[in-house]
Structure formats: structure tokens, C-alpha cells
Amino acid sequence: MFKNVLFVILLRPKMMKSVSGIIITILVLLAPFLSLVTINASSGIYYIYTNSPQYSILPGSIYVGPMPQNYTIEIAVLLNFTNYNILEQITNLISNHKMGYLTPNQFRNLFYPSESYKQALIHYLESYGLTFTGDYGLILTFNGTVGQVEKAFHTYINVYYYPNSNIYWFGQLGIADVGPFYYYANNVTPSLPYSVGQYVLGIVGIDSLDPHVYPVIKASWTVAMQKAQGGGIISPVLVTPSAIAQYFGFNKLYQAGYLGQGTSIAIEGVPECYVNASDIYAFWKEFAIVPRTGGLNVIYLGNYITSPWPSGENELDAEWSGIFAPAANIYVVFSDGYVGGPAMVGYLLNYYYEYYYMVNYIDPNVISISVTVPESYMAAYYPAMLWMIHNIMIQAVDEGISVVAASGDWGYESDYKPPNYMIDIYNTIWYPESDPYVTSVGGIFVNASSTGQIVGITGWDYSTGGTSVVFPAQNFELTSLIPDTPTYARTYPDIAFVAAGGYNIPEFGFGLPLIFQGQLYLWYGTSGAAPMTAAMVALTGLRLGDLNTILYHISYSGLIETPQGYVNGLPAWIPITSGFNGMLAHYGWNYVTGPGTYNAYNMVYDLRLYYFNA
User: Fold this and answer.
1) What is the CB-side half-sphere exposure of residue 409 using CA atoms within 13 A?
2) Which of 33, 177, 293, 373 is 20 to 30 A from 87 (CA-CA)?
């Protein structure tokens, strides 16, 4: 049952190191591969448990009858990585900064299913009459009749009626006012012969639950913004990028020549949407701190755009990341019905594919995410997609890509929402923020003077924090130098930055500028904290990879624990001791700001110091 496997990997050298390459030989005893879905290799059957009825049939649903056998449906087969035991060992070394990074091509060659395997799977499904419609790397799409799908996957697909208004997860309210509705779902766990099923992570489209909740999730991807007009929640002065840069030490970085030269920031787009590049360029010109020299690249995959207006969310991301990292190249990636065409929109396939494209074809220094999904929904009803995205986060870390994501704008566990930005999602934190390889960025509120200068900071009362229902406590949490870091499960946020602010306004007021559709708007949200933090990471000029293993080993005093021992850095953290998002902010780790916010100059200094001692 066991065999020896010798891997010889020529790794990407870390930037600015004097070595030209690192050759690491890993001799391991490889046990039979056991994927995230369950197999029964002894019987030759592979069960796809991520599509078990417990995930596809809502509790309380009423059986209506079988789906018509001749009804045509579109499906997507999601593929897992191979050699997962080896991958976990390598990722553990790389994430702890004890091994060099892989290139995208190296990663694919080591851990992606082979073309021969994919062809065998395609031929198997075609033998049941399914039509192969597309290869999207780790996603294969098909169409066929219900009868053909049932026979190919040894399952049955029925029609159900969900009579309730709300959807629940883990015994709590999850999504409000989304039902009742009819949908179809399989009532038997799908299976395949082991030889063609061994790397199948899940099947999308074998049930139609996801398109019913997709509009609610997509509604959370709209940035909270207001035209710059008078009113009790509108700051009479702007909190400009220049004011933020001055207060938080960015200017000192610029003066020292740290502008993000040679780095790139990739931004997750709202699927089926677009941006007006003219807005982004206008913002950069109007609010420039130092002249911008980096480029802007907007990538559109597909052409199925459902939104009648641009994504204000992504214009905000590009505007604020580019202004704080003036020499970095900014990429915004949109998958607009690209994967499987319009029929597959609503299943998060295009959302996933944007990540896939970034790690395989852009290979940026940093990915900035402000477009996310409820973790509890993914865990309760869509685990296959959760693990598909988790795999991409593993690939990102192994390539030396840092990933930052906005923690959310709805308070503790999404249950303490601002009165002017309500969404119908409750009792959850957000994903991929909760992923161990992602740095979740919470929010702070900046109090401005009547002249627009920052005079004080507090924890933002609507910054989302909470506890994962998927991931256990991570090693960086168990060994954290930050006081009060929880050790019972993966928790977030991991860092915090500006999410709202102004002069003489409430915390759900508006004072931060955005140019949208050629006009000045104001905004609030951790959606801005994430791209600003991505910019700070880009200013290091390095590929830092897994940020959490660094951040949690930088103490408040500036003492840093590196793989080579302790070194003395600068006091980069600014602990936040006030604010209430349903939980109180306090000295040490808290659910509002995590370890706290940061002085950008000191944090860049410490991140670079850690890197060169790893």
C-alpha cells in the first residue's frame, strides 16, 4: 500500500536574495492519496460526498416528484489537486517561510490532474451521452439530460419545494426572505468508478439551490456609498488619501523610495460586471500623494455582463490600492459568464475562476479581495466550492502571493449591521477571509478635524469579526506574540485599517472619497481597508507569501520571531482599545480589529526584516 516517491523541485528564489536558486530534495513515504472527498478504492467506487443530499436538500423541503428524464441541465465537474499529502507538507514549509516558492508552472505540473486523466473522465461521461462543453483548468463543463446525468453519476434528481421564507445553517438564521421556492436536487450521493473519479471534488449544477441564494450574496458586493452632498451623515470635509498617508506613516515610505516598484496587485472583480477605467485614472490624478507610475490592467473573461452600471466596489479597490502603491501595477479581473456561459451563472464558478486566473496567469505579489461569500453558507450547502477556493489559496501561498480580504461591514458574526447598509445574511463570517492562508482586514474609524486632518482612531463599530465553523486554530494563532489571540478555532480579523471616517459624523457616515461614473461619491467599509493594506504589502517590494505567519509573530514592542530566531524590529502595531461591533475592542487581539492597525513605515520595515531572516 505504500511506495517511496522522490520529488526534486527547483524552486523560485525569493526576490532580492543573493542565491540564484534553491534545490530541495524531499524524500517522503507517500500513503495512498486521500482527497477532501471520500473514496472507497477497495470497491472501485468513488463517492462524491460534497454532493451528498445533506448539502443539496434544504431541511424542511417537501418532495414534489422526480425531474423529467429528458430535461437538459448544465453541469460542471470540479477537480481536486493531486498528491495532496505531498502538497500539505510543502505548503507547511512554504507558509512558515522555510522553503522557497514555486512558479505557477511548477505548481501545475506537480499538483494538477494530468491531461490523460481529464480525457479519461471526459470520455467516461460522454459514454453516457453527456456533451463536453469546456475545459477551464480545474473545471470541466458538460450538458445532458437528467436521465444521462443520473446514470453517469449513479444518483437520482428530484424536484423539491422549500416552503419557508428563511434559510438556516447550524441551527441559526442564515439568509432571510429568500423563499419559498421550487428547486431540484439529487437525493443519492453521486459516485463514479475510482479510476475516473479519484480527483473529482464536486459537481455543480446537479442541484439548483445556489442560483436561488446568489442574488442575496451578490447584493453584499455593493459598496456602501453616497453622493458628496450635505446631510447629517455626510462629513463636511473629506478624509483624503494624503491625510491617511501622513497619519499612518506612508509618507515616510515614499520619502525613502518605497513606491511598490516591480510589484503587482490583483483585485477580485464582481462577476458579470465591469469598471470605468476613466474613473480610476481621474481619482489617481485628483488625489495623488506622489505621482503614479504603475499601470492599470482590466481583464475581462467572457462578455455576459448583467449589471447596468460599473462595479463601484472594484473602482474603489483600484483607486485606493493604486494611490497608496503608486509604482505598483494594478490588475482587476472579471469573469463575466466565462465559465460554462450564462447557464452556469449563479453557481460562483466565475467568482472562483477569477482567483484561478490570478494565480496561474498574473502571479501577482498581492491579491486584494472585497467580494466574498458567507462561510457558513459554503460549509452548510456548498462545501465543494469552499474547498476549490481553499485549494487556490494554497496555490497562492506556495507561489509567494499574499492574499488580503475585507472582513465585512456588518459587525460581529454579521449580526450588527449599519442602519443604512442592511443585508439579509446573518450568523456568519465571510470566506475566503476565514481561510488560514488569507489575511482578513477589519476596520477602524478615523476622526478628522474640521480641516480634514486625522486627530484620532477607534475600532469601526461595523467591522466584521468572528469564529470559523470550518477551520481549527492555526499554528500562527497558537504561537502568536499578540496578547489574547484565541486558540480554540480560526478567528478573524488579522489586521485592520481605515474603513470609515470624517468630521462630526456617526460611524455609518461618509467621508472617504471615490470617483464613480465621473462624479465624487463618499464611501465606508472594510472594502477600502483591504486594498490599502494590499498596497502597504506591495510597498515592501517583496513576495511575502503567507502574511499571517509573519503578522502574528510581530509583537507590539517590535520583537519579531523569525524562522532563524528573534530579531528586534520597530513597533509596527497600533493596538485599538475602543470600538464595539457586538464585541468590545480592547488591548490585545479583539473581534473588531484583530491585533490592531499599523504604522505603514514600521510594518514594512518589520515585514522586510522578517523576510530577510527567513
Assistant:
1) 32
2) 373
